[in-house]
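Student:
Attend to each token:
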Amino acid sequence: MITNKLRMKKAILAVLAVMLLLPPQGCAKKKGSKHIIGFYNVENLFNTTHDQGKNDYEYLPDGANEWTPDKYASKLHNMARVIADMREDNGVWHTVLGLAEVENREVVEALIAQPELVKAGYKIVHFESPDRRGIDCALLYNPARMKLVESEAIPYDFNTSIKITTYNKQEQEDFRTRDVLMAHGIIDGEHFAFYVCHFPSRRGDKGQDLRARAAEIVYNHAIEMQGRYPGIKCVVMGDMNDNPADASLSRYLHGRRNVADVKKGDFFNPFWEMLDNGIGSLYYRGDPNIFDCILVSDALVNGKGLKIKKQSNKYYGTVYSKPYMTQQSGQYKGLPHRTFSNGKFINGYSDHYPTFILLGK
């Protein structure tokens, strides 16, 4: 009973906060400039010290990766370079940038403190997850462009009618994965909710049912938010470990390939068409995949105000890559230039390219 009262009180306070930040009815909203909303799997951004309860031993100086302070510093610089280059090419910093595979808040703080990113003035939303590898999701936001109202971690559970075959009951009880990070706030006088996800992995080509459940959790929460805050615009981003046409995204998250097919309660996935045309954010055995999706609710397709816009590449999304982010020679030529290759440190960036969308009026 106490918990329910606290939740109700928290919800009421959040509603009041939104009402205070939204412009009064009848007042003209100032037309805002473009907003870049992005996602980046930064591939194992670990520091060099052990975090109690986390399986980070390979990312210690005496671990398998011999993860020294110099390597860590180089990794931070490389990630900052990519984010800063996106700002250079887009003309503005990200309004919101989701991150996956960060060890803790400390590494995110170290990232935004890099010389390349200090001017962005990013703020952080982060929660510790129960994931056994010790990796979390995080969100960077520009406080000059988004006013944060509230955030929460959404845990994974098996309270579903989806048939789970990957794990038996005991394995389900023992299962630990990343929480979904949700943050909502005000951008140009409009209410947004952002979900940053890292769905269960594809190890052994399994886990389709686990990812379906993860998508169901996110979708149900987004629909709940739309009921609680009429008119709210939802953006779901992350490393989904699935492609746009897979059931987790197309069925359970109600993702649609084309804007013309987006109805109330649906999401538009701008990366579906891109993958069909051979564009990838990561590769497996040479074949392109786009696990790094950003989906937008129907209000960002069919509604008023800020909406998703086509970009100069003639798509609604971008998979961002530069020559320095790509292997230029050898066995993995043309693939993302990752941090390690065959167990050897190669001072790369990530095994994923970042993705982003553009919002405008």
In short: The chain has eight helices and 18 strands. The CA atoms of residues 5 and 336 lie 49 Å apart. Residues 33-360 form a domain with the Deoxyribonuclease I; Chain A fold (CATH 3.60.10.10).
